[in-house]
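Morning run. Coffee first, then this:
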Amino acid sequence: MNTVIQKLKNDHRRFARLIRRMEWELDRCHHGEGLDTDAMAAFVDYCSRHADEHHHPLEDRLFQRMLDRDPGLRGTIEQLNAEHVELDEATRTLHQLLEAIRADNHVSRDEFLGALARYLFLYHGHMDVEESELFRRADSLLWESDWQALERWLAEQPPSPFEDASSHDYQRIERLMTSF
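And here it is:
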């Protein structure tokens, strides 16, 4: 597997770990237990920042090259791009609700749990489509020159603090993900 797909799949594995942790928090809330708002806010921040700054720009470039090779993928890629917008909106909503809760403002339990459940549902479905319909097709569809161009672009990007094991952001997320 080439480095571009490997990086995207590694990102998805990390997102999936965060989602499992958030699902654990959701389950606790459904059973009347308290919510770790600091951890949840950190997870939402990670998903938002890393996706917006690193993951989605790489996917956008990959998907455009795939579309150039197979115009029949237009519907799937347009669906995924629309889901990126929907995920951004769900992320903003969840972030705002978490900030309100952390500021001791009233947020209805049902509103928060509904927003969290929607966010988790969207993330699961979105990653499933990317992995099952596009990532697996990329190797057979793209040429070596496509991969080289994507790898050059990737090498020119600043590193994500969430991928540097020595960074505070990375260590905090790792600690929070393993604290349940």
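The two ends are 32 Å apart (CA to CA). Good start to the day.
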